[in-house]
Design brief:
The protein has 484 residues and is of the alpha/beta class. It contains 16 helices and 13 strands.
Amino acid sequence: MIKELHEKLANKEISAVELAEQYFASIEEKDKEIFAYLTLTKELALKQASLVDAKIARGEKIGMLEGIPGGIKDLILVEGVRATGGSKILDNYIAPYDATVIERLKDAGAVILGKTNCDEFAMGSSTENSAYGPTKNPLDLERVPGGTSGGSSAAMAADMAAWTLGTDTGGSTRQPAAFCGVVGLKPTYGRVSRYGVMPAASSLEQVGVITKTVEDAAIVLSVIAGEDKMDSTTAKSPTKDYTRYLTGEVKGLRIGIIKEYLDGLNGDVKKSIQQVIKKYEELGAEIKEIALPYAKYSLPAYYIINFSEISSNLAKYDGIKYGMRATDHKDSILDFEPENRNLIETYLDSRRFGLGAEVKRRIILGTYALSSGYYEAYYLRAQKVRTLIKKDFEKVFEEVDFILTPTTPAPAFKIGEKTNNPLEMYLEDIFTVTANVVGVPAISVPGPEVEVDGKMLPQGFQLMGKWFDEENLLRAGYAYEISK
């Protein structure tokens, strides 16, 4: 898709301004129902597009992403643009600088259409936790688009962007991509800079890419990846063109299957994944059954680490140093007059009115897990389990090149179906969190659709690769994609 648009721009079949305006027209037509975007940046986009048109008019060569419009998850800062993180506590926050990934996109000439909706501070699996309202799945408006990058995935599925960025803390690019029938890529932890991305669970999260195709994901990753002096967690890895590795060839590559994962699936989802496995066998890949003994502890370990780091990172939203200050609310939590609030009362009211229920739940549980007498029992133990899971992966990757799983236990569920049961919602991440716990790259690719209530819905499959081996991960995903 991106390559086709690039060729149209380079051949002057369409101008970059016309292309951007087409996407804004699509947003105008569709987004009233879907609600994928929180903020549009039309002035910025048309200015960026006009610079590309001027370059083409001068006969200069343009890059692959130059003039191509995309959407940015609202956790990622774009200078001069409102950045809420899906939270009321940052309702009026204007980003004072660009995130590193935005700097790189701007340098590459990409066009930014706007900021996409998300679960508040990347906490959720359905984008129902956004303080501004839920995003709907374009393929079935009664269903969720997944989360937390639901706005970015919905924008892709509804043709309201040519590419989008999300963030992935426990599956937040892959799960919504699977629900919306598009591609979601989580790079290796440290492959892409997190500078300028609102932090929640710092040791887990990574900027991810959501696109229509694996090739498009490779194009965007080629622009945003690489070491960053502003982020000490980025690895010393050179920039590269990941599209060079999309050979379509997987003969001889070894793919690991976890039997216990498949046994627990419902019939239609299991059939979909078995069809994917069969296709890889036909393409010449070697399928091998593997065991990850500690992987079953990934979900509880993940959520303890997640909640604990959230408790620490979100402490700054106190209404004094950072975030909304509760000065306009009459119904105080402690029944005092707003103008007479003391410091602790300001803290309490600012967080009460500014933060949503799921965010509060995670802060409370995380604070408990880090508290004196419980730190060793919860957070420290979860980190030890994390080490054991990582050792499992190191051992398995001596035998196979990839691990194949479903992306999600089932296709997209209906809006409101799981909102009253947090534990059931957390189980949506059961196949995706492991990649974040150990830091490996992972990609969700659309597999055979599954019938639900008489309607065919997308079902994604996930490939997890070796640390910093995005080249082969993308190659394997691409091979399946072009074989269909």
